[in-house]
Amino acid sequence: MSFHKKFHETFTSCPNCGKRLNHEKNSVSCETCKKVWYNNPAPATSIALIKDGKILLAKRKIEPHKGEWDILGGFIEAGESAEETVIREMKEETTLDVEVDEYLGSVWDIYEGRPTLPMLYLVKMKNKNQIPTPQDDVEELKWFTKSEIPKNLAFRNVEIILQKVQKYLKK
Ligand SMILES: [Zn+2]
Q1: Which of 16, 69, 70, 104 has its CA 20 to 30 A from that of 151?
Q2: Where are the beta strands (DSSP E) in 20-65?
Q3: What pTM did the predictor assign?
Q4: What 3-state DSSP class applies to 87?
Q5: How many angstroms separate the alpha carbon of residue 107 from the centre of ligand 1?
Q6: pLDDT tens digits for 87-140?
Q7: Catalytic residues, which ones?
Q8: Portions of the chain given CATH number 3.90.79.10
Q9: How far is the CA of 31 from the centre of ligand 1 (A)?
Q10: CA 22 to ligand 1 center in whole angstroms
Q11: Contact, 164 vs 170, CB < 8 A?
Q12: DSSP state at residue 130
């Protein structure tokens, strides 16, 4: 898995002085400016909402992995906590109001060649009667039991979060 290929292809010259950058494994640096830029993973959230033994998955409306099944969630914005991202993303993608139930850990992943770090959360609906409605970059929302989970999953973190919540799912 190449975590840094895209980074090194993108960052070729110094944004300050325009000089060619030196490339280390996970960073680039400018000899003139004495600055270093690291290819750190972008923090993100991945959200498992389970109701009556079924998990809510989203079919992606956009590239990458358009048409494949994804977990809900998204990138953390500056000034936001991971928990605030979870609540915002669920509202944006499904219209649902949720609260964070449990933190399930983090995993490395890759999004369009860039390293990411999704933090996995189990959430609860604030109002069990709310109906999820696809919004934003979501084509379709569907509830799945364990045996119904589709094969075409978009990202590594989706498989991992599904393993972590197996015990809550119906066969
Ligand atoms: Zn420079």
Answers
A1: 104
A2: 22-23, 27-30, 35-38, 42-51, 54-60
A3: 0.92
A4: helix
A5: 34
A6: 999 999 999 999 999 999 999 999 999 999 999 999 999 999 999 999 989 999
A7: 140
A8: 42-168
A9: 7
A10: 10
A11: no
A12: -
